[in-house]
Amino acid sequence: MTTEVTGQKMLIAGEWKEKDETIEVRDPGDNSLIDTVPAASANDMNEAIEWAKQEIDQKRRLPVHQRIEILNRAADNVNERKETFATIIAREGSKTINEARDEVDRTIQILRISAEEARRIQGETISFDQVPGSENRVGYYTYFPVGIVGAITAFNDPLNLVAHKVGPALASGNAVVVKPTSVTPLSALYLGEALLDAGLPSALLSVVTGKGSELGDPLVKHPDIRMVSFTGGLETGEQITQKSGVKKLRMELGSNSPVIVLNDADLESAVEKTVSGSFSAAGQNCIGVQRVFIEKDVVDTFTEQFVHETKQLTMGDKLSEDTDMGPMISEDEAKRIEQWVNEAVEEGAEILCGGERQGAYYTPTVLTNVPKHSKIACEEAFAPVVSLFSVEDLEEAIKQANDVNFGLQAGIFTPNIDKAHEAIEKLEVGGVIVNDSSDYRIDAMPFGGVKGSGIGREGVRFAIESMTEKKVACFNLAR
């Protein structure tokens, strides 16, 4: 598929700006040039922040009814161009066209939920007379926006991740400066256009494109950025915590999500859902299944069925509706996971299927006998690779599931409510999904993890809580 390269502009406070230096956006499937975007400088980032600061300083905060109207109109704008958005997502990233359409639907929902939650940002009265001597005092607390939110997003959900930051930020009365990843920036620019067309005041949103090495520090270190919302890798997240200074942080830093399959599980359902959870978006999913712990009595049956279903997946053209899995985001990433798998095999792991690379494509891969200390078992693979482990019982499964520095989400398959509750209580994760894979989420639920998986929670209402501050008002009525 050919695309006319028009040269996209970046959005700084309502103005679409060009730069002499540009970044090429290429389709990872065939390395074809899709478009170019400006390679912004630190000065461009500072300009975007300064415009946002002027808007915030002038106290021109949008009334709630306007926030609601703008977010709903933006959702309508995305809906009217659904296929355009889906094609952009599929071409600049790894998702198939069907996966991309699902992402557009989620984005529309996020914008509408943000509009709904904007009307629900409410405080409470405080009973000051609970303290002796305060009988004549009454008051309440309310919420106010932090000011300017700096948003940094990853490639795997190039539209949805931006919406998860921009929607709540605008709903709660903030300005927001977005730095999308340089490999998938087009979706963010198109969303910015949809919001401007919906009537958003220009200074409240900027989408600054460029290299993270150039723009990251100016964004996270800037004193007027009062919150950083970041989705990406653990190493970068750790750097942000060291550089940001005293400000709010919300970070989702990935995982290597476990799924537990017990003897009493519905194996057909467990296989179907776990295969889907392992290989959607070419495995480049923070809650995608990476490790499966199966009780020993059913491990052979589960493994046979799992491998069979994995082999049925069709890998190829992302724009074909018959394709189940596209390429990884780059050939370098495919080479990385190829090396990880080869290292695991050298250490004793066995490849049950897959394990082959062609360019950026890496076949859906199932491993067994994986050493617990290998990278593929301990770190976030972020690739279409899943490891199967036999365990004695639930206790061992939970112990092994917890034995990593990640804890975003986990899944467990069992009809036994007591065992399900034991897993919920003991698994060190931010969410436990029962009778489904770890790869399940709705955008209204609190989403985030523990340990190296990050800080805080997304999900619209919970993101709004982090993007606001409480202020107490107390009246002394004594005369």
List the helices and strands and how they pair.
Layout: E1 10-12, E2 15-17, E3 22-26, E4 33-38, H1 42-57, H2 64-80, H3 82-92, H4 97-118, E5 124-126, E6 137-145, E7 148-152, H5 160-171, E8 175-179, H6 186-197, E9 205-207, H7 212-221, E10 227-231, H8 234-243, E11 248-252, E12 258-261, H9 267-279, E13 291-295, H10 299-311, H11 331-346, E14 350-353, E15 357-358, E16 361-362, E17 365-368, H12 375-378, E18 385-391, H13 394-402, E19 406-407, E20 409-413, H14 417-426, E21 431-434, E22 450-451, E23 454-455, H15 460-466, E24 468-476
Helix pairs in contact: 1-7, 2-4, 2-6, 3-4, 4-5, 5-15, 9-10
Pfam families: Aldedh (PF00171)
Protein name: Aldehyde dehydrogenase family protein
Domain Aldehyde dehydrogenase: 17-472
Fold and architecture overview:
- The protein is built from 15 helices and 24 strands.
- It has 479 residues and is of the alpha/beta class.
- It has 2 domains: 10-253 and 454-472, Aldehyde Dehydrogenase, Chain A, domain 1 (3-Layer(aba) Sandwich), CATH 3.40.605.10; 258-442, 3-Layer(aba) Sandwich (Aldehyde Dehydrogenase, Chain A, domain 2).
- The strands form 7 sheets. It has a 7-stranded mixed sheet with strand order 14-17-18-13-12-20-21, with helices on both faces. The chain has a 6-stranded mixed sheet with strand order 9-8-7-10-11-23, sandwiched between helices. A 3-stranded antiparallel sheet has the order 5-6-24.
- Helix 1 (42-57) runs parallel beside helix 7, helix 2 (64-80) packs antiparallel against helix 4 (97-118) and helix 9 packs across helix 10.
- It is globular.
- The model has no long low-confidence stretch (mean pLDDT 96).
